[in-house]
Design goal:
Length: about 190
């Protein structure tokens, strides 16, 4: 006879429950380091383009300077897009109330950003570019240049994440009842 753990089933399994319970703060911290490192690359590229006046092929961020092939790899860009999507999805059960709403907004936007990178990756792999272009082209890239577009995408994913984190660490009394982790207690020093 087996006993079903309904709380594990509700949150998607034991390891997901653990990730969004006792290990939520650590998982969020690791995820945010990855997100901020990626942001630093975009900021460095923006400074190179608009602050230093470099041409787009030379403005490769920090890692792209010693490893130029890296910035041209659609696998790298797609890998980051899917990593973001997976991270946002896996860490979502740890959020409740207002923070969950904002985290879900970031997840939805990242899903579209991921689709754009999937289109770019598929074009790079097949050699068939959309709209008769000579390079892989995403849908919104028809309207906005690639560097600006992906800086915009990363901004509109990051901002709701920041709002979600703010509300997650400062829940209302009603939200505290449903929070599966102790992130807010670690911030305030409150006891469990």
């Amino acid at each position: 006879m087996s006993v079903v753990n309904h709380s594990a089933t509700r949150t998607g399994g034991g390891w997901i429950r653990s990730l969004n319970g006792p290990h939520h703060r650590a998982a969020l911290s690791i995820f945010m380091v990855i997100v901020l490192a990626h942001w630093a690359e975009h900021i460095a590229q923006a400074i190179q383009l608009w602050g230093l006046g470099w041409k787009p092929p030379q403005a490769r961020g920090v890692l792209g300077m010693p490893f130029p092939w890296l910035i041209r790899s659609e696998w790298l860009h797609y890998g980051y897009a899917i990593l973001m999507l997976i991270g946002l999805f896996l860490l979502r059960p740890g959020f409740t109330g207002r923070s969950r709403t904002w985290w879900t907004v970031a997840l939805a936007i990242q899903f579209w950003h991921h689709i754009e990178h999937l289109l770019l990756l598929l074009q790079a792999q097949t050699g068939h570019h959309l709209f008769g272009r000579s390079v892989p082209t995403s849908l919104l890239q028809l309207v906005v240049p690639r560097v600006e577009l992906h800086l915009f995408y990363n901004t509109i994913v990051f901002l709701p994440m920041v709002v979600a984190m703010y509300f997650h660490l400062r829940p209302t009394p009603a939200e505290i009842r449903d929070i599966p982790c102790s992130c807010h207690r670690q911030l305030t020093g409150a006891s469990a």
